[in-house]
Structures are given as structure tokens and as C-alpha cells.
Amino acid sequence: MIMLRSLAQQEKYFLGITIVSLLLIISVPYLWAWSITPAGFHFSGILFNSGDQNVHLAWARQAYEGHFTLRDMFTSESLGTDNSLFINLYTTAIGISARLTHISIIWMAHLFRLIFAVLAMVWFYDFCSQLTTSVRTRYLALLFAAFSTGVGWLWPLFPNILFMDKPNMPDFPMMPESYVFTSAYTFGLNIASLALIVLVYGQLLRAEQKQSWKNVGVAAIAAFLLANIHTYDALPMLGVLGIWTFWRLTQRKSTFSVLALGTVIVGAILPVIYQYIVFQHDTQFRLKAITYTQAPHLPDVLVSYGLVFIFAIAGVILFWRLRQNTRHLLLIAWIFVTIIVIYVPALLGHPISFERKMIEGMHWPLCILAAIGLAACLERIHSLPLRNIAAASVVIISSISSFQFVVWSVATAQDRQHSQNNALMPPLYISNGDQAAINYLKIHYDNQKAVLSLAPIGNYIPPQTGMTVYLGHWAETINYQQKELRTMQFFQGGMSPKKAKMWLNQNHIGYILIGSYERQIDATLPLPLKPIFTSGTSTIYTVK
Prior knowledge:
Layout: H1 9-35, E1 41-43, H2 50-64, H3 89-101, H4 105-131, H5 135-147, H6 180-186, H7 188-210, H8 213-229, H9 231-251, H10 255-281, H11 283-289, H12 298-304, H13 306-322, H14 328-347, H15 363-378, H16 384-398, H17 400-414, E2 429-431, H18 432-443, E3 450-452, H19 455-458, H20 461-465, E4 468-469, H21 480-491, H22 497-506, E5 509-514, H23 516-520, E6 530-535, E7 538-542
Parallel strand pairs: 3-4, 3-5
Antiparallel strand pairs: 1-2, 5-7, 6-7
């Protein structure tokens, strides 16, 4: 890549070794989980939060089948309507690539995840090279970004703190978007967004340095893509760009910088405007978009960054004392704007939906500031071996939760998610009977009809078949709790045949799957229906 040409050979080696190490750590567990697939089961290809992962895969499935605008396939209300407007270019690229290469969507999604993990590291290192001339500081920032999370491993000592990096805390969902490592390990969409965020700022800094419209164009395209695939990330970024523009205007000598920033702002705001139009005209999109996911309390967030946050404070203090590099103001503004956008609207009584998601990206500036602070502290150690040991110790301690998360996910796969049954997550392994039923629906289906099943398997039907389900995802399924209650009534004798028939027709349900999960609740049919497929304990019925 062009941005790597100016690096010394030693830096290229360090960057390459770090990237290879990261790729191994975030890849091998998936291969291992696939290799231990128990007899009678099929590995889903997912190790964490299969519910949300399948939403993204369902978008890719629609692109695979030739659709550009995307429906909500986890709710039957989307059937019979023709007003889908939602677009996600990242998952569309996955779907088109899978179709062209004949690689399954799930493994193409993993390939994209790994590619953007590499790009994130490269673009971040380029960003660091523009902020500091210290190679040691760049190395530390890269290691923090690649491997650090927080101190969730201390939760037994501090049970009242909501650690964002602790995967099995009661009543609190882990926030992988808070960290680069957990994003790269679990969600391709997250690491792609993180990569684009740092590319925007890096290209803008380089554009100002070179007075280059080429770099401005790259930044504007990256901002456009980011605002499309993760629109809520655009809000903090627009705030930072607005402050940056105001600062340049006050200098009255940076016409190019103001025009460049304005160009990138336009690139970011266009998808935001489009999403607003989608919100106004796409009922299904609007109903799921207003789902409120509250961010943790700010003290919990800051504590959750552990040593990175502590050394970032040291970095801010050092900057404030020396004030040698005004570019570091970008890092401070990045952090404070993110915090303001997340918490101030809620304090004013108007919280933003998915406010916790907007923390995505804040790990980047924290890592650089932490590296600056740690490098300054290491300068006080005169012995080089002791200095290296101290640096390695800090990086390793800051990475404990990362490796704990990997071990936890592997253990969860090993016990086939039995320890997580109460978390209401779809299974990591699907029984052969259920998988065979899903495969049948993939070939023999009416895309104007919905499938009825319990949510664990209903979550997998849209991404694997392209079909719509009545019940499938806690947020994507409109009126989820009410639909779950109706589904249980249907399967457990709570409806008369006449009422059941009317209910099925009203909700566009054309297929009913009674598989391994439905058997666990002794599901029965309240009216006679024709079975069209059977494999093991899984049977598909058709509704006439």
C-alpha cells in the first residue's frame, strides 16, 4: 500500500507481525469450533451473538439474491409491502461477492472481517505516524489497538461495575463495538466501521499536510461508506469535523483545510439524510430503529477501558504541559464529542436510539493517548531491559480480557452453548434435522410467505434461505414479546382450529417448522396441516 512506503523496514516488520498475530487469534477459534462439531450437528460459523450476526447475514442474503434495497426478514409485516428503502453497502458487497465466487455467505463474511481487520491496523498505524514521530509510541499504540480491551476480568472483585468487555455478566450484554480486538473477533460490520473511521481522520491529516485533493476524496468516500453502513457512527464524527472546521476558520489561513473538511462533511451527511428519508417512509425500518439500547453509565465506561484509560489520562496531561503537537487536539476532541453525543441527549430527556453503539471508534484515540502516556512513563526507566519488560507487562495486562473472551467463546462452543441457554441466544450448532429443514426451505419456498418456528431456529432461516419469519430476533421482529406469546399459544393448544387458521393467514404464514426446539416444548398443531418435509425430528408443514 502507498501509505506504507514511507515506513522504515523495521516498522513494516513490526506491523506485519502484529497483523499476522491478530489474524491468527481471531481466526483459529472459528476453525477449532468447526473441527469439534458434534455428531448430529452443523456449525453455524458464528461464535458470539448469533442473533445480531444473522441480521447482517440476512441483508447479505438479499444482496446475494439480487436485491439492492433490504427488507426486515425477521418480521412478517414486511411481506405484502413494496416500500423497502434501507441500503447497507457493506453487506451488499458480501452478498454479491458470495454469489460471484460461489463461497457461502457466512465464510465470505469472515473473509471480509479479516480483510478489514488488516486494513484497520494499516490505516491506524498510518494515522499514528502523522501524530507522533516516536516509533516506540507507534508500536505501543498499535499493540493497544490490536489486543487491548479492559479489566472485565476484575468483575468478581467489583460486581457492581458493568464492564463492557465481560461477555457473561448477568443482565448486561457485552459491547464488542467498544474495542478494536473484540470487533475484529466477532463482527465484520464493526471492524469495517472502525477501519473507515480512522481512515477518514488519517486521510484528512495527510490532505492538510500535502494539500492533496486525492486524500480528501478518499476521506470523503470513507465517510460516505461509514455513514451508510453504521449511520450512528457518523454523528460523533460530524461533531468532530464540525469542531475541526471551526478551528480552521478561526485561523483564517486554512482555506484548503476548510474546503476539505466541508467536502468530507458532505460525504458523511448525505447517507444520514437518506437514512432519515428511510425512517420516514419505511415502517419496518422506523419501528426497529427506535429500539432503545441504553449505554452504560459513564464511570462504568471509563473504568471498562482499564489501563488504556489510565495511561490515556497521562497522555492528555503530557500534551497539556508541552502543547507541542496541536494535532493531538483531534484525539481529545474525538473522545469528548463521542461522550457528549452519547450522554447529553439522554440528560436532556431525548436519548438517541442505539446510543451505546456510538461508542464505536473511541478506542482509537484512547490507544494513541495511552501510548503517548506510557512512552513518557517508560522514559523514566533508564534500563532498556526493564523498560521493555514494563512495556510488555502493561500491554499484556491490558489484553487479559481479550484472551479471556476468546477462551470463553471457545468454551461456549465446546459445551454447545448449554451454559448460555438462559441468554436466549440462537444456537452456535444447529441439529442436522433443523439444518436439513432449512436447506429444504432454501430450495422449495414461496418468498411471499413467512415461516413459523421458535426464535432459535427462526433466527437462522432468513440468512440461510432468504425467507421471512414470523419470530426471529428480539429487535428486528416487531412486537417480539407479543409474537412470542402468540407462537407459544399456537404450539401449546391455546388456539382453536378456526382461530389458528385465521391467525396464520393474517400473518402471511405459509410454512411451519417443528424441529428440535419446538419438540422441547412438546409443540403440536391446532389444525390438520400437510407435512412436506421430514428429517430426523424436524418436520415442515405447509399452510394452504
